[in-house]
Amino acid sequence: MSAKFPRFGVWALVHGSRAALQDPAEPYDASWARNRALVLEAERLGYDSVLVAQHTVNPHDPSLDQLEAWTACAALAALTSRIEIIAAIKPYLYHPVVLAKMAQQIEHISGGRFAINLVNAWNRPELQRAGIGFAEHDERYAYGREWIAVVERLLLGESVNHRGDNFRIDDYRLLPADPYRARPLIYVGGESEPARELVAAHGDVWFINGQPHDDVAGLIADVSARARPAGHAPLRFGLSAFVIARETQAQADDHLQHLFALAELDKPLRERQKANTDPHTVMHQTFARSARVGSNGGTAAGLVGDYDTVAQRVAAFHRAGIELFMLQFQPFEADMRGFAEEVVPRVRRLLSA
Questions:
Q1: Least C-beta-crowded within 10 Å: which of 80, 150, 170, 337?
Q2: Domain segments of the chain: what residues?
């Protein structure tokens, strides 16, 4: 059962604007300075989490800037005092013992506010051009499942001996152990069958891409029915969504059309990104069902409208089981403030009633 009120988080702007890259009201900026200021303001406004996606090169255009996730998260851990910091990780980029040590260190820096978001990669050039290679979809998930099994045991403070298809580890233990809790939380993304099996076995929170309410409810029902390892708490659920909340529905619709028009300017980049994407990922098959702006499902979740309508839809998702909403906006800073001031109080009133 979900908590009485949902948590709200924001996507860090690790590769610039989320809906359209050529927006006069939001010039392209993926810098550390901007992301630092954005996260500090999100914390001040009461947001609960920030998700820092991991890419080593910009997935839209390799000539554009790209923030590095794990060094940024370490810095954010030292600068913030309350907000949860979630770093995405692609297992092929780090050996599990190295990544577990890094995660453990950021957990200490943050005072117990760190989390991992396991993603199994979809952008071919990022791995291929580095000579790492890009395995087929199910093979990537098999690798990720073995990888996270090792990481989880190390984060729990165990002495790990492991013999698997990909790793051989002898009597490995990381110290100091986590003084705040058993280990950092593990978020898992992906909606394919291997992804659902992985999150049921190792995840604490399943991170669902933005899509309509009934589809999300069906996904929650499916994964909630799956067996969990002994000792694991019930699985929790998060949802990505791009929000356009305004005083009136007409104003929200106008802004959505404005962003659609701006997004058309990025069409060549989007086509290149599509060509670089693994066609077997369920995420991109889902996105093809409807027009949208924003990443990871974007406006497909339907959080576009006047303040009351958006609040009602958030409350409905929460009643269906969503406990964390990871949000995108454009213009980001202004709409992030508007959501905190206008929508969040309405959601709390609805759920209190």
A1: 170
A2: 7-352
CA 198 to chain centroid: 16
From 283, 340, 326, 234, select the one nearest 9 (Cα to Cα): 326
Strand partners, 50: 10, 85
Q: What is the 3-state secondary structure (H, E, C) of 139-155?
A: HHHHHHHHHHHHHHHHH
Please tell me whether the peptide bond between 179 and the residue prior to it is cis, using omega within 30 degrees of 0. no
Residues 6+ apart with CB under 8 A from 173: 154, 157, 158, 159, 160
Task: Give the bridge partners for 240, in sequence order.
Answer: 326
Which residues pair with residue 305 across a beta bridge?
245
d(CA 299, CA 296): 9
In the numeric block, which tokens belong to residue 295?
């990443």
Pick the CATH number of 7-352 from 3.20.20.30, 3.40.640.10, 3.40.630.30, 3.90.1150.10: 3.20.20.30
pLDDT digits (tens, 9 = 90+) for 18-59: 999 999 999 999 999 999 999 999 999 999 999 999 988 888
| C-alpha to C-alpha distance for 294 and 300, rounded to whole angstroms | 9
Beta strands in 6-107 (DSSP E): 7-11, 49-52, 84-89
Q: Strand, coil or helix: what is 164?
A: coil
- For 248-279, the DSSP string reads SHHHHHHHHHHHHHHHHTTHHHHHHHHHTB-T
